Amino acid sequence: MYQALVSFNYWTFIAQICNLLLQMFLFKKFLFEPVKKIIAQRQAEVGQLYSDAEEAKQSAEHDKAEYSEKLLAANEEAASIVRTATERAGRQGDEIVQEAQHKAQAMLKKADEDIALERAKAMNEIKNDISQMALDIAEKVVEKEIRAEDHKALIEDFIASVGEDA
Fold first, then answer.
1. Are 139 and 145 within 8 A, CB to CB?
2. For position 8, what pLDDT does the model report?
3. What three-state secondary structure class fits 1?
4. Residues 102, 94: Cα–Cα separation, whole Å
5. Is residue 121 a part of any domain in this protein?
6. Strand, helix or coil at 87?
7. Buried (b) or exposed (e) across 93-123, using 16+ Cβ within 10 A?
């Protein structure tokens, strides 16, 4: 009985070999070929994903470079606008200061003119008052009536002498 397990039968060996070859053929035909196709398809999909990812990466880098350029241009434009506004504000400030200086000078000139006019008025009033006092004093001293021509001459002499003293 144990001997049948160890014995060698050629027909069984040939049948087993044929069975093995038949199984290999069937596996290759129905299993390995479809599996190879699926693997090849998946490799193509993975390759496509990698190429799409590379394209997306390049597109993102291009967009980033374009964004950086636009940001730099926007910063330069903003700096230019600020610089222009600062210059304009400086010019307007200078104009305002000059206008205020001109107004101040005009006001000083008008004040000087007003002072001169008031001084002249005050001097005239003082001259009139002084001439009236002088006339009153002269009348009392002389106790006589002075003619209008003499009066006028005395006033003008007195005014001239007061004007020289002032």
1. yes
2. 73
3. coil
4. 12
5. yes
6. helix
7. eeeeeeeeeeeeeeeeeeeeeeeeeeeeeee
